[in-house]
Amino acid sequence: MAQRKGKYTIVFDDPPMIKSSAAIGSKKEAQGPLKHIFDVINEDSYFGQATWEKAESRMQQDTVTKALEKGQLSASQVDCVFAGDLLNQCVGSTYGLRDLGMPFVGLYGACSTMAESLMVCSVFLEAGAIQRGVAVTSSHFCTAERQYRFPLEYGGQRTPTAQWTATASGAAVLEKGDCPPFIRACTVGTIEDLGVTDANNMGAAMAPAAAMTIKHFFEDTKTNGDNYDLIITGDLGKVGTRLLRELLLQDGYNIEHAHTDCGLILYDMDKQDVHAGASGCGCSASVMCGHFIPLIKSGKLNNVLFVATGALLSPTVVQQGESIACIAHLIYLSSQKEGGRV
Amino acid sequence: MAQRKGKYTIVFDDPPMIKSSAAIGSKKEAQGPLKHIFDVINEDSYFGQATWEKAESRMQQDTVTKALEKGQLSASQVDCVFAGDLLNQCVGSTYGLRDLGMPFVGLYGACSTMAESLMVCSVFLEAGAIQRGVAVTSSHFCTAERQYRFPLEYGGQRTPTAQWTATASGAAVLEKGDCPPFIRACTVGTIEDLGVTDANNMGAAMAPAAAMTIKHFFEDTKTNGDNYDLIITGDLGKVGTRLLRELLLQDGYNIEHAHTDCGLILYDMDKQDVHAGASGCGCSASVMCGHFIPLIKSGKLNNVLFVATGALLSPTVVQQGESIACIAHLIYLSSQKEGGRV
């Protein structure tokens, strides 16, 4: 049985392990400093399909297939897949996973989906409801841009606070066992909204959600930034990163020395013209699944917090004058199954 | 610990109970034969708000608040809410629940969301990850119609196979305890797609998903239609109901004597001009939370299967020629905490 710590945090008694993970990206991701983390780079942003939506579905299917292959597994050996994405009705996931025949739990957490899917999958494992699960998400620059902002052909100017939606996907296979990394605990996010209405400044909108969830976790576990090798947020970018650190400092938590953000490291911030950084479900998913999870697996990192942030807006509510409601879910990953911080 | 039965079914060791539930509807729902099941009828389809999306959010917030009130609880006593809806980015849930401050797990299962949220909440309870949760969903005729089909002002003709999206919401409060009804088991759905492309015939598209999930449950538990007082699907309507029964007969399961569909009973099929019946997340959610859950609570029903079906399409993929991928999740509810069918 999982134990609750405080009001928001779930600590696993028999922590699930991440058996394998995979990341797929496209052309722009291959031009960045993390090009080596991708299992597959497909420079064709259509992924051989007729539309961008089908491309995103294909990318997500390929990522799950690759993660299973790295774990020497087939789809029929998976009890449940936990998936979602940014597209209306989460069709990137539905249509991407349709042919794999796995029992399917659809999630919506916008760019927090990688943390949400790892969390829900871990709880299903802890309950004994499944023996093996897959957590996956994706984003695609072209599908997201036209759905949330403008037709690509329009060539709209991007503001300095805008972030670039990654064309990428990450997937992880979870089961019980003794090989790191282990998912030791998670903190379920609350919906935070400080009134930001600028849909081109997601970092500012999401930072308060990240700050709140991290604060909840620190309070619940009586730890702080000094207890972790790395606190990885995704995807706050330049603006949100600064705000997050400021907000946590106001609560007495200094995380600067341990903090990084997936939106700041996926692309070359000087040369790739991505303004405030990367974003999209696929950004933190691929950076975690392709980069940080392997680093914990190999023992180079030991105690890591992964805090994925999502802006839960729709274009419709923004047009109706609503501010941007956001959420962040936190996953505590460790190279150790016992001991550590919880 | 939950036990897995067969490949798809999760049987709870310490089954969660439904402490309280509530249903809210609007004008058309009040004109139907189930008008008495609603805790609140708001004849104003705007629910006092400026837009339909805000109306749906308000309805969902009111439904959760009412379910908590009936359980003599406040939002601060809830460990997590599990919610989703039909709107792009699930904004009915996000913006409806934003002010309640509860930890939030966003789901997307289209009209299967009530079963999905009950399932995920039950697993969280079984794992010990939470002590109390709320499952909720909603739909609104006006938001769904313009998002999926036509502007309401257009006055488009509806085909005979079309269903009418309910303006309704249902919410249930779950915790561990000894008062019925109990959630004894659930079967996670698989994505099924037999190639239906007519977005005005959701019943036909969804029936195969319902048939597959029911078949999986019967096989996993070695039971059949004779073992249950009622098998409640939602929302297949006239067309889907006939197809479901035919599909299951082909597999040797006759459920006709025990089967009903929320889409067939919410409205007066002769007088209310709803063509093939009701649909929308709020249809099965309100019919379950307002009608059937109380009937199990009072002992008038003992062993009930709730199979909510969802069409996971988006307007975009339909325009791109895709067929309609569907899913159904199953919940086995019982008035008894032990014994019974699993």
UniProtKB/TrEMBL annotation, chains A, B:
Pfam families: SpoVAD. One of its GO terms (molecular function) is acyltransferase activity. It comes from the Bacteria. InterPro entries: SpoVAD, SpoVAD_sf, Thiolase-like. This is Stage V sporulation protein AD. It comes from Youxingia wuxianensis.
